[in-house]
Amino acid sequence: MSALAQERFYTIDDIYALPDGKRAELIDGQIYYMAPPSRKHQTIARELFTSIDSYIK
């Protein structure tokens, strides 16, 4: 009979220990690595920010 693998729960200290530039989120004790935003995402975010900024001004 083999032992069940124990699930590790991560903390904010584990997130802070990641190398610079490594994007990740901590959700319910699990680390989820994120891909960098695409150019399309950046373009849409910039246009949205510009529209909101213009409206506020």
Blueprint of the fold:
Layout: H1 12-16, E1 24-27, E2 30-33, H2 39-56
Summarize the structure in words.
The chain has 57 residues and is of the alpha+beta class. 40% of the residues lie in helices and 14% in strands. It has two helices and two strands. Strands 1-2 form a two-stranded antiparallel ribbon. The longest helix has 18 residues.
Q: Which band does the percent of strand residues land in?
A: 5-15%
Number of strands: 2
Number of helical regions: 2
Strand order of the largest sheet: 1-2
Please tell me how large the radius of gyration is.
19 Å
Mean pLDDT: 91
Write down the overall geometry. Answer: elongated
Features:
alpha+beta, 57 residues, two-stranded antiparallel sheet
Briefly summarize what is shown.
This protein is an alpha+beta fold and 57 residues long. It has helices spanning 12-16, 39-56; strands at residues 24-27, 30-33.
